[in-house]
Amino acid sequence: MKTSIATVSISGELREKLAAIAAAGFDGVEIFENDFLAFDGSPRDVGRMIRDHGLEITLFQPFRDFEGLPEPQRMRALDRAERKFDLMGELGTDLMLVCSSVSPAALGGIDRAAADFRELGERAAKRGLRVGYEALAWGRHVNDHRDAWEVVRRADHPSIGLILDSFHTLARRTDVETIRSIPGDRIFIVQLADAPLIEMDLLYWSRHFRNMPGQGDLPVVDFMRAVAATGYDGPLSLEIFNDQFRGGSPRSISVDGRRSLVNLMDQVRRAEPALQIQVPQMPDRIAVEGVEFVEFVASEDEAVELGRVLSSMGFAPAARHRSKEVTLWRQGSAAGGINLVVNTEQEGFAHSSYLVHGTNAYAIGLRVADAPATVARARALGAEIFEQTRGPGELPIPAIRGVGGGVIYFIDGALANVWDVEFEPLPTHPAADAGLMRIDHIAQTMNYEEMLTWILFYTSIFRARKSPMVDVVDPAGLVRSQVIEGDDARLRLTLNGAENRKTLAGHFIAESFGSSVQHLAFESADIFATAEALEKLGFERLAISPNYYDDLEARHGLDAALAERLRALNILYDRDGDGGEYFQLYGPAFSEGFFFFEIIERRGGYQGYGAPNAPFRIAAQKRHIRPAGMPRA
Q: What is the CA angle 106-133-274, rounded to 5?
């Protein structure tokens, strides 16, 4: 599998783009003409620079408004093409993209267009060059790959071929199965892009909202399955127009791009095993069986305060690490309870995380069937492997770097005894269990421009799907939220993207110096019993406005007794269209006011996360922490 990316897909000047593309492991690059025109070196300099990076030029593009023109415009278009052929010779590439005409002067007719391309093919062949024809979704006369193929077929010239672009096909909802009848050797290059499903003008949608395969909602896998069935074995190239990417890190966007292609073709290979698709071999996407632990790092003083909060939720110190300043807090049984680890080491990676971020949940441990296989897949997809020196008796737990530079550990059957091997049990305390059963979800807060990166990261490594994006209303602005959820919901991650530092999420990012876990949600089987148990343990509930409960009773038609019970315990409530119910109880913010705990109960198959309650929860949190310096909306 040969991978390529168009220079228009990432930000920066040409040298910076090429360095990022090469570092990400691409084989080739499409030269977008504007990037070349803005460069201050000669075409030969550009070609040499590309080859010095170990890349080849897979395509020069775009050449516009060529076919179907009357004279004298037709001859001028052929002369323009000759100029571009001169340039291609100096650059050192043999393929040029011609996109279907949008010129008002263009005349329709498949035969007329085919005749134009036949002549262009003759001129290209004399120079050893090729020309690919692409149907723009908004083309004046040709806007469908089926018509573009018919033009190429009738041109009947070896130097004229078809260029397929997933966006142009899928945006118009063209049947991808029609691709399967096209001979693979007549497809000169395949360009790939995904996009969120948005009803808008095709040109505007294309120019601003494309993203990497797997980051959007288009059936790109189905498109590539059809392409693979043709026998096509040329480059797969990303052509992404995205306002967010234009302002992002070239290196990060390039890594995302290559990850998206490898993940895409791995899915195609598994769906089409008879085609023997060449793609890096890796294990299949990994099912997460649950959250084994979450690890906090804190100073000794802050660990005492964190311990008070944990105790007030029914957790108890269960074990102490045999060689490190690390304590295991647990609620429930060792086999199926909740494990929280508090690390107060003064050296190593955890301490470095504390120095940068303060007290934070820097590591997550996930239960998987095969930990080495999980890391093998992550490595094949470009994830950063995490390793540090192990102390005496410590197990080799595979891990990768995650959001905000944190760590994701993988625990399988061979490592399930980690708590017995590495930890010494502490004297048992009287049971103070509050009925918390497991971690329902982990909320990670990040800058909005990072969200697509981490959505692709999680969905390419794990057997998980993404939910539609929702807007969470903060009194100071919007926060974009998207859920990553495993097939059986044993993995639930809410990714919250902040653009405004006045929002609670944005302030968290600013104060913690980067993306991180902002809250943990624990599941209870009976939230009212849990709330009563927490009250006896001294748990401080987040105070919700009484006005919320007056509206809640009217909006949902709640029984007055239930509404009063919710009010008395500061429990928030939501209901879905199928009768599922969701109950939420929050503690006040911890760690300088920005990390917090949530307790939830799901009834009747409720699958959401209480998004309608977010404005009221956030307002209550801001009231609680404003004396500590939270800016007003």
A: 150
pLDDT range class, residue 617, cuts 50, 70, 90: very high
Instruction: List pLDDT tens digits, range 488-503.
Output: 899 999 999 998 888 8
Task: Tell me which residue of 180, 188, 192 sits closest to 155, measured CA to CA.
Answer: 188
Q: What is the pLDDT of residue 632?
A: 46
CB 584 within 8 A of CB 610: yes
What's the CATH code of the domain at 353? 3.10.180.10
Whether residue 458 is found in the same domain as residue 386: no
**Closest to 625 (Cα-Cα) out of 598, 591, 597:** 591
In this structure, are residues 10 and 253 in contact, taking their beta carbons and an 8 Å threshold? Answer: yes
User: Do 95 and 205 have their domain in common?
Assistant: yes
Predicted confidence (pLDDT) per residue in 301-341, tens digit: 999 999 999 999 999 999 999 999 999 999 987 777 899 99
Any domain includes 280: no
CB of 600 closer than 8 Å to CB of 524 = yes
Answer yes or no: is 184 within a domain. yes
- State how far the Cα of 107 lies from the Cα of 72, in Å rounded to an integer: 13
Tell whether 255 and 313 lie within a shared domain: no
**Residue pointed to by tokens 């075409």:** 43
Each residue of 98-113: pLDDT tens digit?
Answer: 999 999 999 999 999 9
442 and 412 both lie in a single domain: no
Q: Which DSSP string do the residues of 366-426 spell out, in sequence order?
A: EEES-HHHHHHHHHHTTPPB------TT-----EEE-GGG-EEEEE-GGGTTHHHHHEEEP
